Amino acid sequence: MKKIIKSTLVLMLAVAFFAPSFAGKVINPNGETFIKVGSKLTYAIDRDGKKYDMVVTITKLSPQISFDWQMTAPVNRSGSVTMSEKAVGHAMNVITDFANGSTTLNGESAIWLSYDNFYQMQNDRRGIFQLDGKDNASKVVNFNEPPVIVKVNGSDMTMNTLMLHNGLMDANKKMIHVLDSKDFPIILKIEAGWSMTLKSIN
Asked: Cβ–Cβ contacts within 10 Å for residue 48, how many?
């Protein structure tokens, strides 16, 4: 009987530990919270010959993740995205190009990596996932790439990242930096024939 109780307790702890863990969490570098409901993430985009910013405003972190987004001129588009609990936990396809209006994601993620995707990067040291529906088989590497520095509430902060890289250093190079946080594995930088770089969090 004691063995059964002990085994059950171990199983419950394992489930609790490995379950998706985004809800109600914040990151506190130097005692400062900088990702929460209301935070604005500003990305610089260079895509299809156009340069513009995309401002992402977090509106919900539990149990789904939701955000509003707005692209500046010359694109001038806006909308909102909600990732279902299923998407937050298990999505392996990351989308970066949003349709106007409201979108609910069940099999994809956006701005965030899913828990499963991040866990694969962190533990299996690989990241075979899809970016906008296209396979991007890459490995977690430590190439001598410049650190990702983001202006957080007006001050520069060097981010701890996981980097996926396809190993090519020419025009075919593809790379993605993700914040090394199981609670907020947000995309910090993408280079995939186009670029998306997080500039600031306020």
From this structure: 9
